[in-house]
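Lab meeting notes turned into a lecture example. A postdoc, R.K., suggested we walk through two folding results consecutively so the class can see how the record format repeats. The first protein's sequence and structure tokens come next.
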Amino acid sequence: MFNNLIESSSHAKEFKRRGSFLLFTTATYLVLFIVTGVVSIYAYDAHLEEQNLEIVVLLPPQEIVPDAPPDTTTPASRDRQHQDDANIPQREIAMLGINHPDVVPERISATPSKNLPLPEGGIVHIGGPDRTVVGTPGGPGAISGGRQISTSPRVVIDDEPPPVPESKPVVPAIVRRSVILNSEAIYLPKPSYPALARNIRLQGTVAVQVLIDESGKVISAKAVSGHPMLVAEAQRAASQARFSPTKINGQPVKISGVISYNFVMQN
């Protein structure tokens, strides 16, 4: 039985050999990975010299304002124009002098006027402070060709005053009548007696405010007083009423008034 015994020996040397091989292989792969990474970094071309750093910005369109036309007037012509304007008399108001008694002033006052009268003839600017130019064209004392020219201003007075516009009487839009309109109706139907009011022997008067158009037709009916059980029939009867057209100065107008209905039980 004990003839076939197997003697086992220690495996420490084999484990040591395998561990050294595994460590060597791991270190080899690690070095290869590091070398591959460094080579790939140096081999990569980022093309930095070809990058475009320009930035495109879209701006809204700007309105093009046309240039102002150049001033073609010369300084000499502008000075001459200003000088001509300064040589024309100026008055604040248009007031004739005492040499025109045929013109009646609008207002008579004992206080002397502070404004100067219009010069006798020529061109006068109205508006602004009074200014009198002596010895200038168109002003008093102007000399032309060795003669003194004095032209009286022309005043036109109408012989006939304008006609007074004829005032037309104002016709009111709606004429309100304070009287009862029952007698003025050409057709006034009687309201039916409500059955419930008849059963309880309810009686009373209902006043209905009506609005009548230009043709005499009732266009609005609203009760202003009366028992609520009698109001509906009174308003229905008032809406069917007809009146003759009412005219003021020949023009048809609307009428507003009251129609009265008496609900009385018959014995």
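The second example is placed directly after the first for contrast:
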Amino acid sequence: MMKKLWGLLLVFVLISPALAFQKSEIDPFDRDENIAEERLQLIEEELPPSEIPITLNERVEYFIRYFTTKKRDVFARWLARSGRYMPMIKEILRSYGLPEDLAYLAMIESGFNPFAYSRAGACGIWQFIRSTGRKYGLKINYWVDERRDPEKATHAAAKYLLDLYQEFECWHLASASYNAGEAKVRNAIKRYGTRDFWKLSQYRYLKRETKNYVPKMIAAMIIAKNPKKFGFDVDPYPPLDYEVIEVPGGTDLRAVALASGTDYDLIRLLNAELRRGKTPPTVASYPVKVPFGKGEEILSALKKVRFIYTRQTIRHRVRRGETLYRIARYYGVSARYLKRVNRLRRNRLRIGQILRIPVRTQAVLYVSPHPAPPVKKVKKTTRKKKVLVYRVRRGDSLWKIARKFGVRLYDLKAWNNLRRNKIRPGLRLIIRPEA
């Protein structure tokens, strides 16, 4: 009797892993009971019209409730920002013959924030990674990152989505491929023998992020097309109305802002692709976006400004796979120039080697073209501008130091030639409180 029991137990132990494997292939959709206590009572006929099939299922309903409860404040910001870019995005998508509702991919990708960065290195409103951005014609270098240019990035996204649709012939699969990559979705189709996104999302092969991607887009679309129905009373920001002018290379955007009498943050938003807050000093001129109707005024003011030229030296640490030509192209200089200033005899570089890249910039400091009002002569006194040297301590951040001394973070980084916000204890920082 005992032998029979042990035999049955052994059979169960051998069979149970196989059963567990079959179950593990299926990915049950775990609903958060705090968010989704009851199914939404939406009727199929009430759904907004769209060229993208709107499937109302448990996942879509979950994200409708998620965006209208737990993430309500976040979604309200997305709705507000959508006013700046939605008209432009829809117009570009239509010009490629694409459904204009694909604009909601940008909403769930970035919330229409051109400065959005992901942990994977994707950025811009369409969250392109470097390789895909370059593949579709976006320029990415030390000075410029066109992934952050909403208009150029939308053209690139339209081309990419068109390619994806031509392969999968389904907007759900094309959208999932935009998130996971076409190879991942292609392999999932081969593995499970179906081209139905909802069936593919039942299995564990696709990442949870990808399986939730299409339901998020559909949920965002349903809410954004009728926000008041879901209790959102949000006034969208007006579209960014601008014109383009040519300014000299190396021009600081702060000079453009002062010349136009416009807030610097608006000029920076209009020219989000400029990573360093200035036009590339390696080109003769560069197109800059300014508020509509201000172009002539700005050009006239900039002609009267006496620029003070400065020379900035960038330090670059050579990484695996980099070549002299590739580094030179990234900074917008010639390989010959890079070789000469670093006194290199050969083109071969070693990993960890430090290269110096001197560049000329202008308008970091400048003299206002408007004459100062006459003043009475007083006894001349000389006063030197105060310059402090601060030693970074453990727990310090650039933001804390800037606030402590009452200076702007942007200026603090410029004075110390810092590319990033990361600092280490012991670093000495130059601070000009009266600058």
